Amino acid sequence: MFADILKYKELLYFLVHKEVRIRYRNSLFGFFWTLLEPLGLMMIYYLVFGVIINRVGDEVPHYSLYVLAGLIPWTFFNNSMKKGTKALSSNSSLIKKVYFPREIFPVTMILSNLVNFVPAFLLVFVVALFSPKVTIQWDQLALLPGIILLQSVFTLACTFLVSVLNVYYRDVEFIMSLLLRAWMYLCPIIYPLTFVTQNDSPAVEYFSHFYFLNPMAVIISLYHGIFYPEQAAPVQYLYYVIILTVVLFLASWLIFKRLNRRVGEVI
Questions:
Q1: 98 DSSP 8-state letter
Q2: Which of 65, 84, 226, 265 has its CA 20 to 30 Å from the CA of residue 15?
């Protein structure tokens, strides 16, 4: 697969460049929306959960940093999935005219959102450096490239699956929109992980046994672990996510290859 994509690396570069350029075309702030969007959401969540409902703010030092460290990786996943779901269906005219590996379209969505993710996450370090209440865990920071790679591969696996299914069943697009809204609240973004693992409620305690089966909850907790070591998921769940990502990637790619044969006719 990757060998085929590399043969069309110029096309991949063109599509990624086009995707990034079109996203901010005719906007006043342009590429700065990469930073402004998570900052705006951070302020909203901080106002609601850190000030109005101040229990969360009391539990986590520098709550705004905690939200930002989870929100930016989630935005990368969320935007990649939304765009990736329509990666094939929105490029029907190009697919019908020229042959090239159709895996390029989902890969394009991941790479274009990765271009936005990297500078946005640098903002987290700027905020952390000026926060006296937070200490950067440099040993965890060394794992950051691996964390980003793990999330990118998991996201690509999901995108392969939903993009080709959306060609045959357009309901997938609407299901994913609803699912992503619910999925966000099942990840430790606006609340600390300890609210789940150290909760007195019997219902939450029972739910906590299944919480780490959500791979995005584990991945986002890894980002938090760079600044809040007590908020990182236990290491055994990292192994689980790695194995799940590899299996999901292989399975989704095989499904993509199988269903891809009739995409030109159906689309």
A1: -
A2: 265
pLDDT, position 247: 97
- Segment 16-44 shows an average pLDDT of 65
Alpha-helical segments (H) within the chain: 2-7, 9-23, 33-45, 54-59, 63-85, 92-97, 104-129, 138-141, 144-168, 171-185, 194-197, 202-211, 215-225, 235-259, 263-266
DSSP 61: S
Rg (CA), the chain: 19
Does the pTM of the predicted model rise above 0.70? Answer: yes
Tokens standing for 222?
A: 């890894």
Q: Which of 159, 172, 145, 67 is nearest to 113 (CA)?
A: 159
pLDDT at res. 45: 64
Q: Which amino acid is at 108?
A: T
Tell me which range, 30-34, 98-102, 197-201, 248-252, is most confidently predicted by mean pLDDT. 248-252
